[in-house]
Amino acid sequence: MLARVKETRVNNAYEKLKTDILSGELAPGFQAPEPEIAARLEMSRTPVREALIRLEAEGLVSLIPRRGAKVLSIQLQDLIEVMEILAALEGLAASTLARLENKADVLAELECASTAALLAREQNDLNGWVDQDDCFHRIIAKHSNARLEREIGLNLDQIHRAVRVLARMNGVPVEADADHRALIDAISGGNENAASEIAQAHRLNALQALKSVFERSGVSQL
Protein backbone atom coordinates (compact mmCIF):
# COMPACT_ATOMS: atom_id res chain seq x y z
CA MET A 1 0.00 0.00 0.00
CA LEU A 2 2.75 2.45 0.94
CA ALA A 3 4.63 1.68 -2.30
CA ARG A 4 1.47 2.35 -4.30
CA VAL A 5 0.91 5.66 -2.54
CA LYS A 6 4.52 6.68 -3.19
CA GLU A 7 4.23 5.74 -6.88
CA THR A 8 1.03 7.79 -7.18
CA ARG A 9 2.71 10.82 -5.64
CA VAL A 10 5.70 10.51 -7.96
CA ASN A 11 3.40 10.17 -10.98
CA ASN A 12 1.38 13.20 -9.89
CA ALA A 13 4.54 15.29 -9.50
CA TYR A 14 5.85 14.05 -12.85
CA GLU A 15 2.62 14.80 -14.73
CA LYS A 16 2.26 18.26 -13.19
CA LEU A 17 5.86 19.26 -13.91
CA LYS A 18 5.75 17.82 -17.42
CA THR A 19 2.52 19.65 -18.22
CA ASP A 20 3.97 22.94 -16.97
CA ILE A 21 7.14 22.44 -19.02
CA LEU A 22 5.37 21.49 -22.26
CA SER A 23 2.87 24.34 -21.91
CA GLY A 24 5.67 26.83 -21.34
CA GLU A 25 4.52 27.77 -17.84
CA LEU A 26 7.95 26.61 -16.73
CA ALA A 27 9.91 28.22 -19.54
CA PRO A 28 13.26 27.07 -20.93
CA GLY A 29 15.97 28.34 -18.62
CA PHE A 30 13.76 28.24 -15.53
CA GLN A 31 15.85 26.99 -12.63
CA ALA A 32 14.98 26.39 -9.00
CA PRO A 33 16.20 24.26 -6.09
CA GLU A 34 14.22 21.14 -5.31
CA PRO A 35 12.65 22.53 -2.10
CA GLU A 36 11.25 25.47 -4.08
CA ILE A 37 9.83 23.16 -6.76
CA ALA A 38 8.34 20.90 -4.08
CA ALA A 39 6.74 23.93 -2.39
CA ARG A 40 5.33 25.05 -5.72
CA LEU A 41 3.65 21.67 -6.14
CA GLU A 42 2.69 21.52 -2.44
CA MET A 43 4.45 18.16 -2.20
CA SER A 44 7.29 16.65 -0.23
CA ARG A 45 10.75 16.58 -1.79
CA THR A 46 11.01 12.81 -2.33
CA PRO A 47 8.36 12.36 -5.05
CA VAL A 48 9.47 15.62 -6.68
CA ARG A 49 13.07 14.42 -6.76
CA GLU A 50 12.07 11.14 -8.43
CA ALA A 51 9.84 12.98 -10.91
CA LEU A 52 12.73 15.28 -11.85
CA ILE A 53 14.98 12.27 -12.43
CA ARG A 54 12.41 10.90 -14.89
CA LEU A 55 12.17 14.25 -16.66
CA GLU A 56 15.95 14.46 -16.91
CA ALA A 57 16.02 11.02 -18.56
CA GLU A 58 13.51 12.37 -21.11
CA GLY A 59 15.70 15.38 -21.87
CA LEU A 60 13.34 18.01 -20.49
CA VAL A 61 15.35 19.13 -17.46
CA SER A 62 18.89 19.03 -16.20
CA LEU A 63 19.65 18.28 -12.55
CA ILE A 64 22.46 20.47 -11.24
CA PRO A 65 24.16 19.43 -7.98
CA ARG A 66 23.27 21.81 -5.13
CA ARG A 67 21.40 24.09 -7.54
CA GLY A 68 18.27 22.10 -8.30
CA ALA A 69 16.72 21.57 -11.72
CA LYS A 70 16.85 23.61 -14.91
CA VAL A 71 14.32 23.41 -17.75
CA LEU A 72 16.23 22.74 -20.97
CA SER A 73 15.80 24.67 -24.18
CA ILE A 74 15.75 23.10 -27.64
CA GLN A 75 18.22 24.28 -30.25
CA LEU A 76 17.77 24.20 -34.00
CA GLN A 77 20.03 21.17 -34.40
CA ASP A 78 18.01 19.35 -31.73
CA LEU A 79 14.85 20.18 -33.64
CA ILE A 80 16.29 18.90 -36.91
CA GLU A 81 17.37 15.61 -35.37
CA VAL A 82 14.09 15.02 -33.56
CA MET A 83 11.94 15.84 -36.60
CA GLU A 84 13.98 13.51 -38.82
CA ILE A 85 13.59 10.73 -36.25
CA LEU A 86 9.86 11.38 -36.06
CA ALA A 87 9.56 11.24 -39.84
CA ALA A 88 10.99 7.73 -39.84
CA LEU A 89 9.08 6.47 -36.81
CA GLU A 90 5.75 7.99 -37.78
CA GLY A 91 6.12 6.64 -41.30
CA LEU A 92 6.46 3.16 -39.82
CA ALA A 93 3.56 3.72 -37.41
CA ALA A 94 1.27 4.97 -40.20
CA SER A 95 1.99 1.96 -42.39
CA THR A 96 1.30 -0.29 -39.39
CA LEU A 97 -2.12 1.30 -38.95
CA ALA A 98 -2.90 0.89 -42.65
CA ARG A 99 -2.37 -2.88 -42.23
CA LEU A 100 -4.90 -3.18 -39.42
CA GLU A 101 -7.99 -5.21 -40.25
CA ASN A 102 -10.23 -3.51 -37.71
CA LYS A 103 -9.41 0.19 -37.63
CA ALA A 104 -12.77 1.80 -36.99
CA ASP A 105 -11.70 3.02 -33.55
CA VAL A 106 -8.41 4.56 -34.69
CA LEU A 107 -10.07 6.24 -37.67
CA ALA A 108 -12.74 7.71 -35.40
CA GLU A 109 -10.08 9.07 -33.05
CA LEU A 110 -8.06 10.53 -35.92
CA GLU A 111 -11.16 12.15 -37.42
CA CYS A 112 -11.98 13.71 -34.06
CA ALA A 113 -8.48 15.14 -33.55
CA SER A 114 -8.28 16.34 -37.16
CA THR A 115 -11.65 18.09 -36.92
CA ALA A 116 -10.69 19.71 -33.62
CA ALA A 117 -7.40 20.93 -35.10
CA LEU A 118 -9.20 22.40 -38.10
CA LEU A 119 -11.69 24.17 -35.85
CA ALA A 120 -8.90 25.56 -33.68
CA ARG A 121 -7.12 26.93 -36.75
CA GLU A 122 -10.32 28.55 -38.04
CA GLN A 123 -10.78 30.20 -34.64
CA ASN A 124 -7.12 31.28 -34.59
CA ASP A 125 -6.62 29.25 -31.42
CA LEU A 126 -2.92 28.53 -31.88
CA ASN A 127 -2.39 26.68 -28.63
CA GLY A 128 -5.50 24.61 -29.29
CA TRP A 129 -4.25 23.71 -32.75
CA VAL A 130 -0.84 22.68 -31.39
CA ASP A 131 -2.49 20.47 -28.77
CA GLN A 132 -4.81 18.79 -31.29
CA ASP A 133 -2.00 18.30 -33.80
CA ASP A 134 0.04 16.68 -31.04
CA CYS A 135 -2.97 14.51 -30.15
CA PHE A 136 -3.34 13.41 -33.80
CA HIS A 137 0.24 12.16 -33.92
CA ARG A 138 -0.01 10.43 -30.53
CA ILE A 139 -3.11 8.54 -31.71
CA ILE A 140 -1.13 7.15 -34.64
CA ALA A 141 1.63 6.08 -32.25
CA LYS A 142 -0.80 4.59 -29.71
CA HIS A 143 -2.39 2.25 -32.22
CA SER A 144 0.87 1.01 -33.75
CA ASN A 145 2.78 -0.82 -31.00
CA ALA A 146 4.03 -0.11 -27.49
CA ARG A 147 7.66 0.49 -28.47
CA LEU A 148 6.79 2.90 -31.25
CA GLU A 149 4.33 4.70 -28.99
CA ARG A 150 7.03 5.22 -26.37
CA GLU A 151 9.69 6.45 -28.80
CA ILE A 152 7.36 8.72 -30.74
CA GLY A 153 5.94 10.11 -27.51
CA LEU A 154 9.36 10.98 -26.13
CA ASN A 155 10.30 12.80 -29.32
CA LEU A 156 6.96 14.64 -29.47
CA ASP A 157 7.64 15.86 -25.94
CA GLN A 158 10.99 17.23 -27.10
CA ILE A 159 9.48 19.45 -29.79
CA HIS A 160 6.13 20.37 -28.23
CA ARG A 161 7.28 23.67 -26.71
CA ALA A 162 9.12 24.68 -29.88
CA VAL A 163 6.10 23.98 -32.06
CA ARG A 164 3.91 26.05 -29.72
CA VAL A 165 6.29 29.03 -29.80
CA LEU A 166 6.88 28.81 -33.54
CA ALA A 167 3.13 28.58 -34.26
CA ARG A 168 2.68 31.86 -32.40
CA MET A 169 5.48 33.40 -34.48
CA ASN A 170 4.46 32.03 -37.86
CA GLY A 171 0.83 30.96 -37.58
CA VAL A 172 -0.63 27.51 -38.20
CA PRO A 173 0.45 25.85 -41.48
CA VAL A 174 -2.71 25.40 -43.57
CA GLU A 175 -1.20 22.40 -45.37
CA ALA A 176 -1.05 20.46 -42.10
CA ASP A 177 -4.82 19.94 -42.13
CA ALA A 178 -4.67 18.65 -45.72
CA ASP A 179 -1.88 16.26 -44.73
CA HIS A 180 -3.98 14.93 -41.85
CA ARG A 181 -6.88 14.32 -44.24
CA ALA A 182 -4.67 12.54 -46.77
CA LEU A 183 -3.13 10.39 -44.05
CA ILE A 184 -6.52 9.36 -42.68
CA ASP A 185 -7.63 8.40 -46.20
CA ALA A 186 -4.48 6.33 -46.82
CA ILE A 187 -4.87 4.49 -43.51
CA SER A 188 -8.58 3.94 -44.15
CA GLY A 189 -7.84 2.54 -47.61
CA GLY A 190 -5.14 0.19 -46.33
CA ASN A 191 -2.47 1.82 -48.49
CA GLU A 192 0.68 1.16 -46.45
CA ASN A 193 3.15 2.86 -48.81
CA ALA A 194 1.04 5.99 -49.20
CA ALA A 195 0.44 6.23 -45.45
CA SER A 196 4.16 5.97 -44.75
CA GLU A 197 5.12 8.47 -47.44
CA ILE A 198 2.51 11.02 -46.36
CA ALA A 199 3.51 10.77 -42.70
CA GLN A 200 7.19 11.22 -43.52
CA ALA A 201 6.64 14.08 -45.95
CA HIS A 202 4.32 15.81 -43.48
CA ARG A 203 7.00 15.82 -40.80
CA LEU A 204 9.86 16.82 -43.11
CA ASN A 205 7.85 19.65 -44.66
CA ALA A 206 7.06 20.89 -41.17
CA LEU A 207 10.77 20.78 -40.39
CA GLN A 208 11.57 23.01 -43.36
CA ALA A 209 8.94 25.50 -42.23
CA LEU A 210 10.31 25.53 -38.71
CA LYS A 211 13.85 26.01 -39.94
CA SER A 212 12.70 29.02 -41.97
CA VAL A 213 11.12 30.57 -38.89
CA PHE A 214 14.31 30.04 -36.91
CA GLU A 215 16.35 31.68 -39.66
CA ARG A 216 14.00 34.66 -40.10
CA SER A 217 13.67 35.32 -36.38
CA GLY A 218 17.37 35.01 -35.69
CA VAL A 219 16.80 32.84 -32.59
CA SER A 220 19.10 29.91 -31.94
CA GLN A 221 17.07 28.09 -29.33
CA LEU A 222 13.61 27.95 -27.80
UniProtKB/TrEMBL annotation:
User: Gene3D superfamilies recorded for this chain?
Assistant: GntR ligand-binding domain-like, Winged helix-like DNA-binding domain superfamily/Winged helix DNA-binding domain
- The HTH gntR-type domain extends over 7-74
Q: Which InterPro entries match?
A: GntR_C, TF_FadR/GntR_C, Tscrpt_reg_HTH_GntR, WH-like_DNA-bd_sf, WH_DNA-bd_sf
Q: Per the record's keyword annotation, is DNA-binding included, yes or no?
A: yes
Q: Name one GO molecular function term.
A: DNA-binding transcription factor activity
Keyword field: DNA-binding, Transcription, Transcription regulation
CDD domains, per database record: WHTH_GntR (cd07377)
> Could you tell me what this protein is called?
Transcriptional regulator
| PANTHER family with a match to the protein in the record | TRANSCRIPTIONAL REGULATOR, GNTR FAMILY, UXU OPERON TRANSCRIPTIONAL REGULATOR
